[in-house]
DNA sequence: TCCAGACTATAACATGTGCGATAGCGGCTG
DNA sequence: CAGCCGCTATCGCACATGTTATAGTCTGGA
């Protein structure tokens, strides 16, 4: 219950807010349920493979810095 | 253990064979694990929402009749 | 013939997800 | 004020998925 180490949550939340979406509408555009997005943001679970794909897709569709990118601050 | 009613398995298998893919390579192009594709084909589980999206996407990418289409033989 | 590799089938366990429900919060309105 | 509404947080349970491991089949090569 220590939730998740990697803060996907923060990144997902950032992305969501940049797109001016509610958890519900973001969930819909990603093809997952509202509860799932909520769990990501609050660190209870980490996105599945497929979910990650969708998230990155959403990023690219809106020309936004990759939220789920590992090699960050690669300078 | 009655497996699944709807034979997604057969349809997924058809699609896979039309594309000349192994379970492993199909899994990769769908963004899921090998075990998941295998479980679909053998009827142990049914694809999730997201998985269905990917499957239909794969169909369209290769201009193949929608495997996961409900309204089949619609005339 | 024996063996190795590719593909498939199945299993067990941990984790992610869908769905429904409940609760809290701020804002708005009667 | 009370009540509704949009949004968020959380829970519980059933089911889907990821990972790893084992075993079966088949085919080609030594």
Characterization of the model:
The structure is a homodimer of 75-residue chains. The first copy, chain A, is 53% helix and 0% strand. Chain A has 75 residues and is an all-alpha fold. The first copy, chain A, has a single domain, classed as Orthogonal Bundle (434 Repressor (Amino-terminal Domain)), CATH 1.10.260.40. In chain A, helix 1 (8-18) crosses helix 3 (34-41) and helix 2 (23-30) packs across helix 3. The longest helix of chain A has 13 residues, at 49-61. Chain A is globular. Chains A and B meet through helix 4 of A and helix 4 of B. The structure holds a DNA duplex (30 and 30 nucleotides).
Summarize the structure.
The structure is a homodimer of 75-residue chains. Chain A is built from 4 helices and no strands.
